[in-house]
Amino acid sequence: AQAKAIDGNAQAVAEEIVSDIRAKGGANLGIDFAARFALELLVRQLDLPKDDAPKFCERYWRMTHGFNVDPVAEQDGLAAIRELTEYFRPLLASRRANPGDALISAVAGLELDGGPATAEDLVVTLLEGDHETLHGGLANTLFLLLTNAEEFQKVKDERRMAKFAFL
After folding, report:
1. Where are the beta strands (DSSP E) in 8-159?
2. 10, 62, 106, 147: least surrounded by Cβ within 10 Å?
3. What are phi and psi of 112, to 5 degrees?
4. Strand ranges (E), 61-153
5. From CA 24, how far away is CA 138, in angstroms rounded?
6. For the segment 40-85, what is each residue's pLDDT rounded down to a tens digit?
């Protein structure tokens, strides 16, 4: 059931982004498609309220980009971790009382050695989830297909080849 939900979310997110790109008349596919796709898919997997998505994404980016040699970015990343933890604390409690099918509910139902999973556990799970792999993989796949006409034609001719191109 979870795999079908992810597939359905993936298609819906991709269609929405492509529609926005068409309306805009062009895009930087690495940012406007690949980065947005990975983050919006995560928002849907978490089943966050739609109005919370922009703020979540901003904090998520700050958190993930705070782990480098820049001390200012590191402090900002740590602040984002604290902000996300506080954001997830009531959501986790709510999903513990009324579970759903999303990732937050799955984490809310975990019993760890020290007791139930916490908002800190959820944020660490998100940080370790490595959003950059999907973002980078999509950006690289799009670049390689758009700069190699023969391979791009194979994907256009047989849709299942898109998976192999990504892999």
Report:
1. 111-112, 115-116
2. 147
3. -100, 175
4. 111-112, 115-116
5. 20
6. 999 999 999 999 999 999 999 899 888 777 888 899 999 999 999 9
Contact 89, 119 (CB under 8 A): yes
Q: What is the pTM of this model?
A: 0.81
Query: How far is residue 155's CA from residue 146's CA, in Å, rounded to a whole number?
Result: 11
How big is the CA angle at 42 (ends 80 and 90), to the nearest 5 degrees? 55
Q: Which of 113, 126, 138, 125 is nearest to 31 (CA)?
A: 138
Q: Which tokens is 123 given? A: 């944020």
CA angle 163, 165, 167 (to 5 degrees): 70
**Token duo for residue 50:** 């739609």
Give strand pairing partners of 112: 115
pLDDT tens string 36-48 = 999 999 999 999 9
The string of DSSP codes covering 3-31 is HHHHHHHHHHHHHHHHHHHHHHT---III
Q: How far is CA 1 from CA 40, 45, 48, in A?
A: 20, 12, 19
With bands split at pLDDT 50, 70 and 90, how would you rate the model's confidence at 98? very high
